[in-house]
Amino acid sequence: MRLNVLFFIIFFFVFSFFITINLFFERSFQKESLDLSHKELGLLTQNLAEKLSFILNIVPQKYSSISNYLRSQGNVLKIDKEFISSFFVKDLENLSGLKVEFVYNYEKIKDKESFNVETDFSERKILYLLPFESNGQAILAQISISLDEIFQKNLKPIKLTPKGHAWLISKEGTLIYHPTQPGMIGNNIYSNNPICFKCHKSFEAEKMILKESIKSGYHYYYSPEKLDKVIYYAKVPVFDQEWILCVSIPYDELQSAINKSMKLHSLIVISIFLSMIILGTLFYYINTKRIAAEEKLKFYALLEGIIESTQSKIVVMDKTYKIVLANTPYANLLKRPKEEILGINFFEICPQQIEMYRVTLKELINRSFNGEYSELMGYPLKENGEIKYYHITVNPLKEGTEITGAVLTCDDITEEVALREQIKEYANQLEKLVAKRTEELQAEKEKLSIIMETVNSGICLIDEEGTITWMNSKMEDILELYKYKQFSDKINICELFSKIGDCLNALASTQFVQEILVQGQRKIFQVQITPVRTAEDKTNYICLIQDITDLKLMEERIMQSEKLQALARISAGLAHEIGNPLTSISSYVQVLKEMDLGDFANQALEIISKHILRISEIIRNISSFAKPSKGEVFPVKINEVLEGSLALVRFDKRMKDIKVNLNLKEVSEVLVDPNQLSQVFINIILNAADAMPEGGDLTIETKEEDGYVLVSFTDTGIGISPENLPHIFDPFFTTKEKGTGFGLSVSYSIVKNFGGDILVKSQIGQGSTFTVKLPVYSSQGVSA
């Protein structure tokens, strides 16, 4: 493995060095090739310019030679048309291959003419004017050559690249020849002719070439065809004129020639590179195979050592089921030497001969070839004539990440199988016992549940913090009554019964009575807490809660009745003992008032008289309380008595800001003394008015319910405090500054005397409701 890594590191550095050298060489070669191309194309342009100059300057050169010769001979030679044609026209046609036009004029010399060359761009000709002098005569010959013919034969064939071409311009900037823009010939680049700017935005490159003083060179420029081009130029002297020959070639076409040579170089480099890769890959493959073979030998040697060190019967096979390794315990199972079973198909010597079990075993082995682990418990094999049971496990054999076979392990579990059968039998027996006991417990649970639901007391199980963990339906009713259950699913009973929290640490059963006032209702509960230990060694508590409100109220009424009876006896004696002396005092006061004893005495007697009247009123109330009388009772309609009572108190100053709301339903008659009942109603109405000194609402309702007529008086006054509520019917109990404490006690006695009752509900700040409850009268008598 280390050798492979070292090989790849060396190969990477060699390859990187090779690529770097190649890139450097390519760039250097490309630059040198480009410089060489510039030189070659520059020489080619210069040679073409020299050739063109030679053709255009043949006539001037020959004319100069002949003129010098004639002058040396004294201008006596005969100059005629044939002479000029043979010396000029034919030689020019032979040398240039051009068709030459010749015009000959013979006339007497008037003014000395000189040789001249004219370019006629409109006729596309170059004119040579050849003046001669012979025997005093002037001969003027005119030779013309077609410019198009010159350019067609010498410039148009010049096409170095597909888009490269040659064109000609004069030193003054006039376009003489252009193969692709013939319409522009004759135009000057220095003029502002719009036609010149149809395809050119500017002529900066051309102007720069015209300004150059060197004979030849090249320039880069961006052509109208939106191509980067190179212009190679050379000057063409024509007699006294100077033309400039330009050859323009796109830069990418210039590069293409270089790229062709580079392709060959790249092919050579790629060939060398591929050869190196192939050789490196071949070396790596051979080396990897060698290392893999060595690793495999080490792996099997290690595996053989491992399987020989265990008592389990182990065999290793490849994917063709041929055994490649087996330990001695497995060979002993087959009763063959270990070396003899190697290379044999596993199923040929498998000790299991039952086809069904052989198929199952083959399926497990095939699954291990897919990378799955399999096992088989209680696989039967016959060994020495005895059936034994084995635990077969089949695991995939992995060499690296490749699965190459399977490893099969056999462990004798005959004793374990026998033990499992015994355990299974015991489990069946235990299951039957548990089922029977479960039925018994279920029956006991149902009995207990019936008892719990039948008991008219709330029963719940709470933990050490007071949280309810179980409750019966009666307990749910208690919580629902006080709308306590809606607050949370996790209910803490200590929040409702505060004294329970003090009993949670007690080791013995604890009992107490607690009063709870919710929404104006006074409820009395008897609570018993009994600790129990749980299986987790924690302490829970059974809480028994019984509503004893009615029982307590009955006890209070009995005590109240006994107290009233005792008070009545005392009051009767007290009224008799006080009444007689008070009568004497009243008589003497009346006598003294008739005597004129002075202002102070008269005022004092008036005060004494008022207090005597107050004492008389108290004695009369005591007498009424001590010896209540039913008066004259007969069936009456209670709504009429109520309306009459309201008429009596309507103009009382205490009723000034009181709004009375009546909701009187049709009810049955009651057997009462209407005067005494009116006294009860008036007393309750005025007490309600006293509870609303700033004004308020008084709602009076009548209805019939369960054999009783109910008259309720609901005010919006200050309410009665919970501590005063149990004592409001006691004689002499009052919260008013000038009250006697007999109003409600007398009213209570009157209603009780009629077989009825007065019920009270009150909340501080929200008001009170007094309900007078009287039995319905029937022809058979008062209903029960």
TrEMBL record:
Domain (Histidine kinase) spans 573-778
Name of the featured protein: histidine kinase
Q: Which residues form a coiled coil?
A: 416-447
* The enzyme's E.C. designation: 2.7.13.3
* Classification via Gene3D superfamilies: 1.10.287.130, Histidine kinase-like ATPase, C-terminal domain (3.30.565.10), PAS domain (3.30.450.20)
Q: Which reaction does it catalyse?
A: ATP + protein L-histidine = ADP + protein N-phospho-L-histidine
- A GO biological-process term: regulation of DNA-templated transcription
Instruction: Name all PAS domain ranges.
Output: 299-368, 444-479
Q: Where are the transmembrane segments?
A: 6-25, 264-286
> Which GO molecular function annotation, any one, does this entry have?
phosphorelay sensor kinase activity
| Keyword vocabulary terms for this entry | ATP-binding, Coiled coil, Kinase, Membrane, Nucleotide-binding, Phosphoprotein, Transferase, Transmembrane, Transmembrane helix, Two-component regulatory system
